[in-house]
Amino acid sequence: MLHDDLAVMVNGVPGKMATAAAEEVVHRGLILADEALTGPDMRDKIEINGVQIRLSPPEEHFACLQRCREKYPRLIVVDYTHPSAANPNVRNYASAGLSFVIGTTGGDVSAMKDAIAGAPGVYAVIAPNMGKQIVAFQAMMDMMATEFPGAFAGYKMVVKESHQATKADTSGTAKSVVASFNKLGLNFQVDEIEKVRDEERSVNEMHVPQEHVKSGHAFHTYHVTSPDGSVNFEFQHNVCGRLVYAAGTVDAVQFLDAQRQKGEEKQVFSMIDILRSGEMS
Ligand SMILES: NC(=O)C1=CN([C@@H]2O[C@H](COP(=O)(O)OP(=O)(O)OC[C@H]3O[C@@H](n4cnc5c(N)ncnc54)[C@H](OP(=O)(O)O)[C@@H]3O)[C@@H](O)[C@H]2O)C=CC1
Ligand SMILES: O=C(O)C1=N[C@H](C(=O)O)C[C@H](O)C1
């Protein structure tokens, strides 16, 4: 499908993930919208890869979305903002009739789905992780749980995740993997996930390379042990930087645009749907 007039509004710039996604939009030759939603403490304008972007603070968000809808008839919104902004932003996108890809974690996904269901013609991808290989790992864990429910009954688990200190919430990816482990028979609560946000521990315990400690990393370890300690499994997914998520985000944008063009009945997709469609680069 031709994407010549497909425009992408990336909300959350100049945050780390939104900036990486905006750069990927330009790199793929799509139109990067010249306006974006941002948080309360932001300046008015930034430049990303030669595109000047006007930033709207929270009190102007809805007007900005309506303006962009008029300006860009074929628009998809990308959201990498803050856990506290995820649900209010989704309500605004649905009310403005805008389709969107949201990677922001920590929101109430079921409330998001309700908002979308009430907005005909609005399509969305909602996923805590856009990295192709991590999405494949999540899918594999989910398939194992569906195929062999209870296979790990009685086992114990320790989950540790390390991210940059500015990350506000517990890893959304770890929460989704824990849900699969629970289907496999474990009894693990998400508040047992150990969050590492201390730079020294990230380096010494989780082996995060020093150059990625502050700028962005996502290291996850799941250690599973049998009741008598005689059997151990360890699963890890460790990512430095943001490129893998940015690439998946723009794959999701193009996939969603194609669903909208063909008037698909289903409105909400996960990254596993996109991986299955063969549309991830
Ligand atoms: N799905 C995925 O693959 C991935 C998801 N993420 C998720 O993306 C989110 C953002 O992460 P990251 O980029 O590292 O965070 P950052 O803190 O670097 O950036 C967040 C940005 O959002 C802005 N912001 C805050 N409130 C709003 C609002 N109401 N509307 C618009 N913008 C707002 C912030 O502005 P201010 O500073 O003024 O508050 C800041 O610029 C997190 O939830 C993270 O878990 C991250 C990586 C991959
Ligand atoms: O905030 C991050 O950095 C990340 N957030 C996502 C999550 O919470 O799962 C994905 C990845 O862990 C990076």
TrEMBL record:
Q: Which domain of life is it from?
A: Eukaryota
Q: Which InterPro entries match?
A: DapB_C, DapB_N, DHDPR_bac, Dihydrodipicolinate_Rdtase_pln, NAD(P)-bd_dom_sf
Q: Name one GO biological process term.
A: lysine biosynthetic process via diaminopimelate
Describe the location of the Dihydrodipicolinate reductase N-terminal domain by residue ranges: 7-130
Q: Which GO terms describe its cellular component?
A: chloroplast stroma
Q: In the Enzyme Commission scheme, what number(s) does this protein have?
A: 1.17.1.8
**GO MF terms held by the record:** 4-hydroxy-tetrahydrodipicolinate reductase; NADPH binding
Pathway of action: Amino-acid biosynthesis; L-lysine biosynthesis via DAP pathway; (S)-tetrahydrodipicolinate from L-aspartate: step 4/4
What are the UniProt keywords, alphabetically? Amino-acid biosynthesis, Diaminopimelate biosynthesis, Lysine biosynthesis, NAD, NADP, Oxidoreductase
Q: Which residues form the Dihydrodipicolinate reductase C-terminal domain?
A: 135-275
Q: What class of enzyme is it?
A: oxidoreductase
Extract the Gene3D superfamilies matched here: Dihydrodipicolinate Reductase, domain 2 (3.30.360.10), NAD(P)-binding Rossmann-like Domain (3.40.50.720)
Catalyses which reaction(s): (S)-2,3,4,5-tetrahydrodipicolinate + NAD(+) + H2O = (2S,4S)-4-hydroxy-2,3,4,5-tetrahydrodipicolinate + NADH + H(+); (S)-2,3,4,5-tetrahydrodipicolinate + NADP(+) + H2O = (2S,4S)-4-hydroxy-2,3,4,5-tetrahydrodipicolinate + NADPH + H(+)
Family in the record: Belongs to the DapB family.
The record's NCBIfam families line, in alphabetical order, gives:
dapB_plant
Q: What is this protein called?
A: 4-hydroxy-tetrahydrodipicolinate reductase
State the species of origin.
Gracilariopsis chorda
